[in-house]
Write a structure and sequence with these properties.
This protein is α+β, with helices and mostly antiparallel strands and 372 residues long. The chain has nine helices and 18 strands. Helix content is 30%, strand content 30%. Helix 2 crosses helix 4. The structure holds adenosine-5'-diphosphate (ADP) and magnesium ion. This is Kinesin-like protein.
Amino acid sequence: DLIPGTDDSMTEADGGEGEDSCSIMVAVRVRPYSQRELSDPNVKRVVSMGGNETTVTTDGGNVHRFAFDFSFWSFDQENGDFACQGQVYTSLAQPLLGKAFEGYNTCLFAYGQTGSGKSYSIMGHGQDTGIIPRFCEELFSRAVRASNKDKVKISVEISFFEIYNEKIHDLLASSKEKNGKKATLKVREHPVLGPYVEGLSTFVVNSFEDVEGWITLGTKNRATAATGMNDKSSRSHSVFTIVLTQTKTERVENQDHDHSITSKINLVDLAGSERQSQAQTTGERLREGANINKSLLTLGKVISVLAERSMASKKRKLFIPYRDSVLTWLLKESLGGNSKTAMIATISPSHHHQEETLSTLRYPLCNAPSLS
Ligand code: ADP
Ligand code: MG
């Protein structure tokens, strides 16, 4: 599904030449009731799903219908009618792994209000592993197969950081503290390779077990930084990046020639999408709330422009506001150009959250396939 190249006026690197392919897949996942909701006799389930359609019937009786690529259900477990972690992985993330091996850059985002299941979907909970560990595990099993069968040498490098208040913190560096505060890293832009985080720790990993160790450390660092900071983890984006390089050596006229393709995979647990309540919007918190909203808003704009661009049949020049937030700036090369994107929108089933649920379902493609 290649679409005609459309240059974005901000980048020279990916230019207007050549074929530009971009596609976005969106899934909705409703979490089961929490213990608290289960023990509330007045709780109402406002979400229902059928096929790829998600319906929200609000307390007031209004019906809102949405269609996405996938709808992941969490009720009726006794009938087997619910989407487990494996199914979410297979539908949404596994195709991205295939695309990464084909050389595409890929991104996967979890979007939704705090408590709706973003981290559960992206990272998992205990034995119930989520997308990142499953992705890494399959990446290494494919890598082993590729090196045995096709004599392709594979190298994998990972990094893990969070963006809080438009500032970047390395989640894998334990010794970079300045005056007891975590060092803040800056975005730089390489003329050819594009934006990157200056000084970010990157590690070469040789097995899934290697990756697991870094995931554990990063998750721990994220949680530690969050304590005592008004649940910072719900206000920060975390970005787990995998750089996959495949090298094939060919022998031509008695000489070895290496061909490498590199693809970047970003697996992102976004900050909570809930609107900040009036009471909290002063001083530092106001700035923080504004930063989160701005970066989620910018991401929404970038994704909807890219989606529009991939649907536009003729070459059109569309402005993509990558630089309006640190997150989109850093992901520029992985969102535009030669890339594949997936989004999992996580929602609560209960009437308590119906307004946030509707705003999640309207993001980012507010004018895309809503059926009513
Ligand atoms: P978020 O990261 O969006 O703030 P979490 O992923 O932490 O939310 O989820 C909140 C709680 O709900 C956690 O205890 C999590 O284990 C649970 N949960 C979320 N989604 C599911 C799901 N699909 N199935 C089972 N439990 C879930
Ligand atoms: Mg979370």
